[in-house]
């Protein structure tokens, strides 16, 4: 019952209204105000006001009871949910038309920090859910479990999703490429944490890192940062495709022996230090 009350509150009912409605639904027969107060925990001093609000919303009906008293019946749950869905959809459509007309041009591109795993993943979900045309992700299995349903929905509505996945994927969504050159354990050793990059519609991006229970991240609409995030993922995907086409051993030979590649790899280990300085803790090393 507590969960149902909380969900009804999220959809616009007050706590008392939700408790009274759930009590009416669970009774199976009309109830008067005294009975609703006794069964629901709504104070007797406010129960009739609460029931009146439910009636005004169409979530309950007044009926004549014994001795011409007023009893109350609930709107059936299926009808209530359909009504709430219609009202919610109508509000969204109205806001989609009206909100953009009052938005002031930003004086600076939006950017904000994310301090924990919950906030980071919730913001990543926002980015994926808001995508309309294209979506780029560089992601590890731990985070993909949370984002996969939203990515699947995005693909279902026509979004072109490109996913760079570190390790085997439980489910292939969009254009998914497994990062095998270099292997995930080598990447983890170099970076020091699981890096998450999400970019949508070339207009917003999220970059963060996870290690154990700790996380850090940043969200931005800065076009330069968004461009770099998209190109980072595109080039990583391109390297995986090249490795598959020419052979991993051949590419690895170039990677380890060519002087230009050697020069580019000279900074190996620095990303981990920089990320740790930004808030991602150092990985725990095995004893000995």
Automatic annotation (TrEMBL):
Transmembrane segments: none annotated. Gene3D superfamilies: Winged helix-like DNA-binding domain superfamily/Winged helix DNA-binding domain. InterPro entries: TrmB-like, Tscrpt_reg_TrmB_N, WH-like_DNA-bd_sf, WH_DNA-bd_sf. Residues 8-77 form the Transcription regulator TrmB N-terminal domain. SUPFAM superfamilies: Winged helix' DNA-binding domain. PANTHER family: HTH-TYPE TRANSCRIPTIONAL REGULATOR TRMBL2. This is Helix-turn-helix family DUF118.
